[in-house]
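Lecture notes, unit on protein representations.

Consider one protein chain, 139 amino acids long.
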Amino acid sequence: MTNKEKVSFQNVQVVVTPSRDAAGAVSYSYTTEPTKLVITQRDTIINFQLVLPTPPDVVFTGMTLSPSSRQFSTPTISTDGKNVTISDVNTAVGDFTWNFAFNGVTATRASSSTMTLMATDPDIENRPGSPPPPPPPGP
């Protein structure tokens, strides 16, 4: 890596909502902020962090990316289970979707009141060499 090349960092906040069905089985849904990442720099580190109002007993126990790709490292879960980190070499254009498991249960994405995400919508868009996207409009 030369002095001009820098590692890029992206942080994603994850809010998890547990629920129980009539039989008492727990399921989890989650939302993320931001809902999508457009990665333009090579060697980007992406950190997912559980934030309030996620209950304190909820932890990451897994993460998958679809489609499977050598663009990403194996996810690493922090010792306390509150963070999961991947690295993205971002050397090829591609669209990827993430999914998580919490407390050993695969979760589903929740719809927000402002937008509905479909399972086929990409969460990570690798666009090496593209200019970075403009920042979101302020409040």
